[in-house]
Amino acid sequence: MRTSKANAGLHQGQPVRTTGVAVGEADAAMILVHGRYAGAEDILGLVPELRLPQLHFLAPQAAQSIWYPNTFLGPNEDNEPFLSSALQVLADILDELDTRGIPAEHTFLLGFSQGGCLVSEFAARNARRYGGVFCLTGGLIGPPGMPRQYEGSFSGTSILLGSSDPDPYIPWWRVEETAEVLRAMDADVDLRRYPGMGHTINAEEIEIVRAVVLGALKTDGEGTSDRPVSR
User: Fold this and answer.
1) Domain count of the fold of the chain
2) Beta strand segments in 99-213, E
């Protein structure tokens, strides 16, 4: 699968890796977004840990393995045109899934680090009912004090914001700010602070993601992993 070339840009035309159930047979889909200097195959390494055989998984690849070049805490214009191109990648995938029978309310968004920032910003700019949104070490993009004038409602969508405190790249105050903004948009936010965890994904976050998906699908699970995952 490849992203649409209707709005060609830096990331358009890059591969989208897939795994899991075929899209036409899946109960739902999950879009996984990798971090800076990582890749689609890296973030797909979470799939065995999640143990969600009902899902179709998709992981887009960023051009040069970065979604945007500069800090997410700087002016948005400093990250253009990369940022707009990256946001369009997610919009294109959601549109294609919808045309193939999996609407946004049956689609889950998950991102780690730079991917978590991209997922949170995309969700805020495109608020609607999703299956769930998981920002693992990430937050809204833009400088301190930036007005957050997003429109729309998440209509109770479950959103996980989990991060180490401190984290070398994502300050905790931005994670808290993100939680406040998304709650005001009618998201059911689960904010998780992990003192001294480091820049990684832990077993509790994996368990929460899995539980949210299974709850949304109203199916029984097989249990959760108690093994840490590093990315």
Assistant:
1) 1
2) 107-112, 132-136, 158-165, 188-195
pTM score, whole prediction: 0.91
Cβ of 195: how many Cβ atoms within 10 Å? 8
Secondary structure class of 124 (helix, strand, coil): helix
Q: Containing domain of residue 184, as a range?
A: 16-217
> Is 188 part of a structural domain of the chain?
yes
Residue 201 lies in a domain: yes
> Residue 118 belongs to a domain with what CATH number?
3.40.50.1820
On whether residue 7 sits in a domain, the answer given is no
55-60 and 28-33: which strand pairing?
Answer: parallel
Q: Encode pLDDT of 104-160 as tens digits.
A: 999 999 999 999 999 999 999 999 999 999 999 999 999 999 999 999 999 999 999
Residue 137 lies in a domain: yes
Structure-block tokens of residue 30? 């999950």
Q: Which residues of 63-98 are buried (b: 16+ CB within 10 A; e: fewer)?
A: beebbbeeebbeebeebeebbebbbbbbebbbebbe
Element (H, E) at 116: helix 114-125
* Largest separation between any pair of C-alpha atoms in the chain: 45
Residue 15's SS3 state is: strand
